[in-house]
UniProtKB/TrEMBL annotation:
Protein name stated in the entry: Uncharacterized protein DUF43
Gene Ontology MF annotations: methyltransferase activity; nucleic acid binding
Pfam families in alphabetical order: BpsA_C
Domain N(4)-bis(aminopropyl)spermidine synthase C-terminal: 106-290
Record GO biological process: methylation; polyamine biosynthetic process
Organism of origin: Saccharopolyspora spinosa
């Protein structure tokens, strides 16, 4: 017989596996059906009632199992020969209720939070209690099939990623955050504890790292509690969701005294084509946020077919306090302000360019000057990486963390030294601001090659630079093997330099000179 023309019929257990694979993180409820069938014979209506799964879905699963399910009268049960195989293949015993969080896990979580960075008011940080972080993790574990799933935390000041690693070590977690301190802290804890957590840097106003687009089965976020903030974070989450079986989980709270605000935020989600699958009241508790009772709800949102198409907007002001707030957006710079900047960069400045680093910034006529007056801290480095002009200027707040001390200036100088020479003009063009002027370094090196191509995959760019500038003749294979020995973090080789946390960029740059 020609097997190519007559493919073998798959075993029932393999057909069931395919059904579960298609369900993704929602497969846990299908596994619960199998667990019921492994224990007792049940009528179809009782099976549906116990598992809360739609009749059509239950029928499809029974059809896939075929002869592995015995039907006696109006009841269904896995055959004696199939029960153990199904228990093992689909880890049905793991579905039994997990023990509640113990004192040891709670104490470890409390230690993670207390040793972490202080809340940044300008980024609307309000710290969740350690009990809340663990409650989130347990809820995810108990409601979704996390085996092989990709979970993304958009912002993680509350360290939900660390809590999930405590209660579900097999989960694959990625954290994206604007705050470099948080990324460094999570990396440090994960390394010490052996947690599998990947961290990436992004300001969601300028997009998400391309590697995350359409990758996440679950996205969790506790965004700024403004309509603009929730709308932006939900939009970026929608870009990252893998498909119709993915879910977005949002922490959001409002005072019962201001229901109109809650309505406006919910409208933002509805305009993205999201369906509220569940709203769990007062699920999260905080140290602070007393205006909303130090609590917020958990929104479980299901995307529709229109969600990805609607995820096309972004808002520059999203926070409730400080220079990043909705009310703090600045007007265009006056002529005398621009003239003073021009004196520093050595040429006329007609306008300030908006920040953003989704793509490389190519050389143009004259020296571009970028408006970083609202930079919360990380923008300056990202713009230095993205910009490839011979000379560029950057207008920042006079208290920008990269220029307020000699130590801070030296750290930035050292990081980009292979690409740019920097000059810091404090209290210029006025007492509130400073101008950083960057002049390109002409001396070729592997580090310069890498820094000039920050939007390329690190491993590929490093290999090309090593072959081009090494003192010895290297093949592609030899260069790749050399990089494998030198790379501080092998996983970073598949990512873009501009998406890495600052501390890992510094480690990579140092490694290129080893």
């Amino acid at each position: 017989m020609n097997t190519a023309q007559h493919p073998a019929t798959p075993e029932p257990i393999d057909a069931v596996h395919a059904v579960l694979a298609d369900a993704g993180v929602l497969a846990r409820r299908l596994r619960e059906i199998l667990a019921q069938l492994a224990e007792v014979a049940l009528p179809l209506d009782e099976l549906i009632r116990r598992t809360a799964v739609a009749r059509r879905t239950v029928e499809d699963l029974l059809a896939a199992a075929g002869p592995d399910v015995e039907a006696t009268g109006a009841t269904y049960r896995l055959t004696p020969e199939a029960r153990d195989r199904y228990r093992q293949r689909f880890a049905l015993d793991e579905l039994r209720p997990a023990p509640s969080t113990g004192a040891e896990q709670l104490e470890r979580m409390r230690g993670f939070i207390e040793s972490g960075p202080a809340p940044a008011a300008a980024l609307d940080h309000v710290t969740a209690t350690p009990e809340t972080a663990l409650r989130r993790a347990e809820w995810l574990r108990d409601n979704y099939d996390l085996r092989g799933a990709q979970l993304l935390c958009l912002g993680d000041h509350d360290l939900t990623s660390l809590a999930l690693s405590l209660v579900a070590p097999s989960a694959s977690v990625t954290v994206v955050d604007l705050d470099e301190r948080i990324l460094a802290h999570i990396d440090s804890v994960a390394a010490k504890q052996g947690f599998a957590i990947r961290t990436l840097h992004a300001d969601l106003r300028f997009g998400v790292p391309p590697v995350l687009e359409g990758c996440a089965d679950l996205v969790f976020t506790d965004p700024p509690y403004t309509p603009e903030g929730v709308g932006l974070f939900a939009t970026r989450a929608a870009e990252c969701l893998a498909g119709p079986n993915s879910r977005l989980l949002i922490a959001y709270g409002y005072s019962t005294r201001t229901p109109a605000l809650g309505h406006k935020v919910q409208q933002e989600l509805l305009q993205l084509g999201m369906v509220f699958e569940a709203i769990l009241p007062r699920f999260h508790r905080y140290f602070g946020a007393q205006a909303i009772g130090s609590a917020s709800d958990l929104y479980v949102c299901q995307p529709t077919a229109h969600t990805r198409k609607l995820a096309l907007r972004q808002a520059p002001g999203i926070y409730t306090h400080g220079p990043q707030s909705v009310e703090a957006l600045e007007a265009s710079a006056p002529p005398e302000f621009l003239a003073a900047i021009g004196e520093r960069v050595g040429g006329p400045v007609a306008t300030l360019r908006d920040p953003g680093w989704p793509r490389p910034i190519r050389q143009q006529q004259g020296a571009p000057v970028f408006d970083l007056r609202n930079d919360p801290g990380p923008w300056l480095l990202r713009m230095l990486l993205a910009c490839n002009a011979e000379r560029a200027g950057f207008v920042v707040d006079n208290n920008h963390p990269d220029i307020t001390s000699e130590r801070a200036q030296h750290a930035l100088l050292e990081l980009v030294a292979a690409k740019y020479r920097l000059r810091f003009h404090r209290s210029s063009p006025d007492s509130k601001h400073a101008v950083v002027v960057a002049d390109a370094v002409e001396t070729p090196s592997v580090a310069r090659y890498l820094l000039n191509r920050a939007h390329g995959k690190v491993g590929n760019i490093w290999r090309e630079g090593l072959i081009t500038y090494s003192d010895e003749s290297l093949t592609k294979r030899e260069a790749k093997d050399r990089i494998a020995e030198l790379a501080p973090n092998a996983d970073d080789l598949d990512l873009r330099l501009i998406d890495l946390p600052r501390h890992r960029i510094a480690e990579l740059v140092r490694s290129t000179t080893a």
